[in-house]
Automatic annotation (TrEMBL):
Topological type in the membrane: Multi-pass membrane protein
Protein keywords: Acyltransferase, Endoplasmic reticulum, Membrane, Transferase, Transmembrane, Transmembrane helix
Subcellular location, principal: endoplasmic reticulum
Gene (UniProt): MBOAT1
Protein name: Membrane bound O-acyltransferase domain containing 1
Residue ranges of the TM segments: 31-51, 63-86, 106-125, 237-255
GO BP: any one term: lipid modification
Amino acid sequence: MAEAPAAPHRTTGSTLLHPLSALLGIPLDQINFVACQLFALLAAFWFRIYLGPSHASSAVRHAFATLFGIYFAVFCFGWYSIHLFVLVMMNYGIMNTASIPNIHRYSFVVAMGYLTLCHISRIYIFHYGILTTDFSGPLMIITQKITTLACQLHDGIGRQAEELTAEQNRLAVKTRPSLLEYLSYLLNFMSIIAGPCSNYKDYIAFIEGRHVHMKLLEVNWKQKGYDRLPDPSPTGAVMYKLCITLVSLVLFLTLTKNFPMAYIVDNEFLDKTPFLSRLGYLYVVTQAAKPKYYFAWTLAPCGIAQGTVKVLAETAGKHFLLSEEDSHAIVREPCC
């Protein structure tokens, strides 16, 4: 029993919250993850109110989002966060030196290649022994953003408008981003830990304060009784997501803890349990593991919504700009 606290203390990131980890009996890396997500939610309130587009320049908003994102990465993953920064800087070099006809190809090969090497190192060097919330999650998100931006840059500069679909035309990027814009898009505190992935043009519109009006102009708001463009509040969307997060947390603390995944490789379980019972337990334990992902993928967009990258506009009755992938659909396959 004396060695029980050892597991919660195991982390490559900050040990500041180790007392809380030991008190709750939850691994420290998970405590750090949740702490960063909750702090991101609070920071997003402040970001929207005091560093809104009407109070601060785009450069200040970019810098704030980037610095906080870097801090969150270092806090959660320690020196492993270097992998994130290396990947970002390598692809920034590619974006500025590669020819437009090949920029999306080079970016894809480098980003996916680096991500693949990191996954291989986890399997064959660390034997999956790093952590449950390791750096590969943010690395996958950044890889998705890098390849998305590279393709949109290729569409915007290297192809004719007639060759593009309506969606490609809308998202096409006409100029190469500056270093600050690039870092802000990939490392901003609202999405660096658990995503979701946004489009570059939508993110820049959010930073510059054009995101709400862009979408509300598509709505016939004058017929709804408004004499000017309304400024919808994200509070309703945030509270709804937080309720789902709370339910997921309760399920995680009950179901997931009562049906440990490690039991399926226990020798006694394998030797003495009938095959159908083992198959049934495998299904149950897989379902019981899902609330952890529901929690992470629902909490992450709360900070984004509060920062108003995603806005619940009551005048339109729907979410705008960014909606996280349906987490239930993502984890529907029994491979969690």
